[in-house]
Amino acid sequence: MILVLHNIRSVYNVGAILRTAEGFGVDKVICSGYTPYVSRPGILPHVAEKLEKQISKSAVGAEKLIEINWCDDIVKFLEDFSGKVVGLENNLPKTVALSEAKKLLNDKDFALVLGEEVKGIPEEVRKVCDFFVEIPMRGQKESFNVSVAAGIAMYELNS
Questions:
Q1: Residue (of 12, 4, 5) closest to 51 by Cα position
Q2: Which residue has better confidence, 50 or 17?
Q3: Closest by alpha carbon to 40, among 27, 28, 30?
Q4: In sequence order, which residues have a C-beta less than 8 Å from that of residue 4 and are 6 or more positions away?
Q5: Which residues have a Cβ under 8 Å from the Cβ of 123 and sit 6 or more positions away?
Q6: Is it the case that residue 117 has pLDDT exceeding 80?
Q7: What value does the mean pLDDT take over residues 5-22?
Q8: Distance of CA 77 to CAs 54, 73, 83, 94, Å?
Q9: CA–CA separation, 54 vs 11, rounded Å?
Q10: The pLDDT value given to residue 128
Q11: CB 104 within 8 A of CB 142
């Protein structure tokens, strides 16, 4: 599994996702868009230092144990990716229940795409997704926090 963090706003969500990804043995994390990331091209040293401290606070060192890369053109990366591209979204066409997704993946390589906390995955990235998975909600809220949803999806798809 490759995890794609596209336009994640919160540095603490990034750290929490990295910690969970390392715990589930995710192969690689790709950061893109405006996702806060220390090695983002053109980032000023003092900003990188601040981001590193904030990410480390919630990742608790996992950020040093997992391969993390920056991608300037996530659409091209996903178009060139040899495995399935799966978006984590709700209420979209081509959405399947998380419990059914593992059958569609058939033990093949895949990229799990996570989008912005409020707006989700932008349209240009949605277009390159093979399908979307959603987590069933039983309460009144329509979605989970992105780091919580990422953990649920990683557990279900990577076990």
A1: 12
A2: 17
A3: 30
A4: 29, 30, 32, 74, 78, 111, 112, 113, 114
A5: none
A6: yes
A7: 95
A8: 27, 6, 11, 21
A9: 6
A10: 97
A11: no
pLDDT in tens, 92-107: 777 898 888 988 898 7
Confidence of residue 16 (pLDDT cuts 50, 70, 90): very high
| Residues 16 and 58: beta-carbon distance below 8 Å | yes
Domain ranges of the chain: 2-158
Right CATH for 2-158 from 3.40.50.2000, 3.40.50.300, 3.40.50.970, 3.40.1280.10:
3.40.1280.10
- pLDDT digits over 29-81, tens only? 999 999 988 777 788 888 888 888 888 899 998 999 999 999 999 999 999 99
Nearest to residue 2, comparing CAs of 135, 150, 101, 110?
110
- Location of structure tokens 């990742």: 59
Q: In the chain, at which residue ranges do the beta strands (DSSP E only) sit?
A: 2-6, 28-32, 68-70, 84-88, 95-97, 110-114, 131-134
